[in-house]
From TrEMBL:
Alphabetical keyword list: Oxidoreductase
GO terms of molecular function: 3-(3-hydroxyphenyl)propionate hydroxylase activity; FAD binding
Domain FAD-binding: 6-345
Protein name: Bifunctional 3-(3-hydroxy-phenyl)propionate/3-hydroxycinnamic acid hydroxylase
The species this protein was found in: Phenylobacterium montanum
């Protein structure tokens, strides 16, 4: 950090994406300040799901076990007709996942956020400021000046970079004059969160009831919560559906009286929006500030945490002077197509669920039941695309793919690849590589005894792509596969040492 800066990175918004980014940066020794307008963590649930990739990010921060302790792995996700026939079935509890963590996990967002904020206190270079409201951003060649209203009066800070993790109504986005691309989905839903008293009386799977008379979602959550969502019908107002008697009538068919008590009721409009620019000079957007999607794929929060994981190592390389600022342009180039593909999946699911015309619903049911009978199922909520462009060796086998994390049985229990190899980029090769070529890069020969428990899985990955080495980025996406010397040289050209 240079003398005239208060921190390397100012993060506006200390929700789960902002705090994850703060942790990932602080872990690399950067000084970060996360500022949030609220006094405390928002106490009511919002996101309900994180996938295995997100748990792996939390693993790198040392909080995966704590987060999993308050979460519930999701066994199955069914989309049913009004009559209970299966339109789509995703067996998320079967078949494991590339990171080794359960593929789909139902969470209680306030519990997850509390764990992340508690961890922040372990990093001396990370600061959290609450009740700070951003009022102004000004950037020049060296940094960004940010003005805040705080309980102690106005505060002005200078940071090398500012990241807006400040949600759907992002002030950072607004102050930066960044527009949103509207993907034309706008449906009003009533969200009901409950505290569970009798878990055995609730469905043990996640459900979308594609009933044109009232499209309905019923999903599990962590920390003893359960959620229902009901689509509003034309003519219904928020006031109508938030009435306790109305809610009791909606819940009646679920026979959960006495098994749950109401914690929160709210009407939301489910949107699909993508920011046109994710970086404007020294200001970047992440999470809901950069993209919003309907909840049907459970990917809103996951996409934000992926943004944080993608951005954190790039900001660190640029701030350390090891990579040119242009590396930050690969952030949107990589993340936007990924997010748009996931939004397409969420929209496909949403458009399946949100049909209220009985004839259209009957046609949907007939088509999807026939498709299912023919064994022709669409990709599941865990079928994420690889990175297609950016900081990868484009067009080579494996480039842009998510690199798996094998787990092995060790003396102390399950040992995971990332815990053995540590943070940063890894070059893993079958043959030895000249250390001169890999200066500044963690180079691992597959025969290294530390890699033995994982060697078979990694060898199989390489064999499938007919390659002798793989370079894995700090966010665990593959830079490229090929010759070790070629990969090391390609990486050094982008991320000098
Ligand atoms: O609607 C939600 O918030 C969760 C949807 C979801 C996503 C992935 C798996 C699963 O069982 C449910």
């Amino acid at each position: 950090m240079t003398d005239n800066l208060d921190c390397d990175v100012l993060i506006v918004g200390a929700g789960p994406v902002g705090v994850t980014l703060a942790l990932l940066l602080a872990k690399q020794g950067l000084s970060v300040l996360a500022a949030d307008r609220a006094a405390d963590i928002y106490p009511l649930p919002r996101a309900a799901h994180i996938d295995h990739e997100i748990v792996r990010v939390f693993q790198s921060l040392g909080v995966a076990d704590a987060i999993m302790a308050s979460s519930k792995p999701a066994a199955r996700y069914d989309f049913l007709t009004a009559g209970g026939e299966v339109l789509l079935r995703f067996n998320t509890g079967e078949g494991g996942s590339p990171s080794g963590w359960p593929a789909a996990n139902m969470i209680h967002q306030p519990s997850l956020e509390a764990t992340l904020r508690e961890r922040l206190a372990d990093f001396p270079t990370a600061r959290l400021r609450t009740e700070w409201t951003l009022t102004c951003l000004d950037q020049d060649e060296q940094g960004v000046q940010a003005s805040f209203e705080t309980p102690e009066g106005p505060q002005v800070l200078r940071a090398a970079y500012v990241v807006g993790c400040d949600g759907a109504r992002s002030t950072v986005r607004e102050l930066s004059g960044i527009d949103l691309d509207d993907l034309a989905f706008d449906e009003p839903w009533l969200v009901i969160d409950t505290i569970v008293h009798a878990p055995s009386r609730l469905p043990a799977l996640n459900l979308q009831i594609c009933d044109p008379a009232r499209p309905t979602t019923c999903v599990q959550m962590g920390s003893g919560r359960h959620r229902w969502e009901f689509m509003l019908k034309p003519g219904e107002t928020a006031e109508d559906v938030l009435d306790d008697g109305f809610i009791a009538a909606l819940l009646k068919p679920w026979n959960v009286e006495g098994a749950v008590s109401l914690e929160r009721k709210a009407v939301y409009r489910f949107h699909a929006l993508v920011a046109r620019e994710w970086r404007k000079g020294r200001v970047l957007l992440a999470g809901d500030a950069a993209h919003q999607m309907p909840p049907f794929a459970g990917q809103g929060l996951c996409s934000g945490v992926r943004d944080a994981a993608n951005l954190a190592w790039k900001l660190a390389e640029v701030l350390r002077g090891r990579a040119p600022e242009a590396l930050l342009d690969t952030y949107q180039a990589e993340r936007e197509p990924h997010v748009r593909a996931i939004i397409d999946l969420a929209l496909m699911m949403g458009r399946t669920v949100c049909i209220t015309d009985p004839a259209a619903a009957a046609a949907r049911d007939a088509a999807m039941l026939a498709q299912r009978a023919a064994g022709d199922a669409p990709p599941g909520p865990m079928a994420f695309p690889p990175l297609s462009a950016g900081c990868i060796v484009e067009g080579t086998p494996g480039a842009g793919e998510y690199f798996p994390q094998p787990w092995a049985e060790g003396a102390g229990g399950q040992a995971k690849l990332d815990d053995v190899l540590g943070d940063g980029a890894w070059l893993i090769s079958i043959d030895a590589v000249d250390p001169i070529l890999t200066d500044g890069l963690a180079a691992w020969r597959l025969s290294n005894p530390a890699l033995q428990p994982y060697a078979e899985a990694i060898r199989a990955w390489l064999a499938k792509r007919e390659m002798e080495a793989v370079l894995i980025r700090p966010d665990r996406y593959v830079f490229g596969a090929g010759s070790a010397a070629g990969l090391a040289a390609g990486w050094a050209a982008l991320i000098g040492s």
